[in-house]
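Service request form, structural biology core

Requester: graduate student, group of Dr. S.
Request type: structure prediction, single chain
Budget code: on file
Notes: please return the result as structure tokens.

Sequence provided:
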Amino acid sequence: MAGTVESKLQGLGVALKQAPAPVANYVPCVRTGNLLMVSGQLCFDDDGKLAAQGQLGGGVSIEDGQKAARACAVNLLAQVKAAIGDLDRVVRVVRLGGFINSAPGFLDGPKVMNGASDLMVAAFGDKGKHARTTVGVAALPANATVEVEGLFEVS
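Core staff response, request fulfilled:
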């Protein structure tokens, strides 16, 4: 039976899939005390394909970037669920870090990152409001448009 957070996600049309496996020499999550750090997640969609490829400001729209950031957030939540078993055990979304594949001069990375932030707030309410960093980068693995990492307080 889905908990409160997963029910909210289902209401938003989000069904968590199996958490993506690491593609290099790292682990998906590290827990220390009540903090769970989730490694950067690319914007893979439900079909295992990138939700968007390429650079913002170089052919990818802000709206497509926001969808990609939301896909990253869904993958973050899948990792959290795999690590702790129940999203209702998230006490707080502490921080998100967003990496936006950006063409030179693209300045709207924060608008793109709202795709991830908005999902956290919709899923967790006030507990989903978080600190955030958004960084424009020249490239991401597989030419993904967005990558997002997260820090969660869990019980």
